[in-house]
Amino acid sequence: MNNKLRFDFDVSDDNKSVTVIREFAAPLARVWEAWTHPRILDQWWAPKPWKAETKELNFAVGGRWLYAMKGPDGTEHWSQAIYSAIDAPRSYSYDDAFCDADGNITDELPGSHWDVSFSESDRVTTVRILISHRTAEDLENIMKMGFREGSSMGLGNLDDVLMAGA
Amino acid sequence: MRRDPFQAIADPTRRAILVLLASQAMTPNALAEQFDMSRQAVSKHLKILAECDLLQTNALGREVHYSLRPAKMRELDLWLEQFRKLWADRFDNLDNLLSTKP
Lengths: 166, 102
What we know:
The complex is a heterodimer of chains A (166) and B (102).
Chain A: E1 7-11, E2 17-24, H1 28-36, H2 38-44, E3 51-57, E4 64-70, E5 76-87, E6 91-99, E7 112-121, E8 124-132, H3 136-150, H4 158-165
Antiparallel strand pairs in A: 1-2, 2-8, 3-4, 4-5, 5-6, 6-7, 7-8
Chain B: H1 12-23, H2 28-33, H3 39-51, E1 55-60, E2 63-68, H4 75-100
Antiparallel strand pairs in B: 1-2
């Protein structure tokens, strides 16, 4: 595709948040729609060979997006996002947490706060995502989970051994 | 040739090599002994890890020893790379979707 589209990925100095910035060659209205409509969201949210499946999406403050990432081997990871602020079509925020298929939050795993904003210039839409965690350790653990969702490869206890050897 | 660091850990043998080198520097022969494969096969993996900028060589005694480059092996970097790739894949999907709809 277009190699000139910006894609920035940075971790904050305190290691608690990640900022992702990406440009899309499409009008803002269409990009906004792709991020906020369940039927469209499910078509791109999961990296192959995983699939995203939305059980419920109530795009309103206090409403929730209950969705699963489903792997080719039948594994399912459920998450729930509760919208805390919406300023259509410029931005929205939500608090995300891992849960079961019914939306019961899993306490052992950390949640995160997401701020997503959209701007358009010269027919290019820029999306900015700020994912914030309570602690640096939470961010690290979330990334490991995300990795497992996005890939069928398991790094197992590599990190534990690396830490032991450090 | 510079490689995507993701390739370093895309292979179970390379992951195991990284684990071994995390605790001590080792010669290519000592590494090969840890695996059920030829010295040549292990060397291929070491070459890829070197191209990913993860290894440094030291002359300890008469033989070359491999160890991890400490700056590159910051644990967070490894996981960040995977996370970044997840987002990259996701956005590629969205690019395709945005370009195919009328």
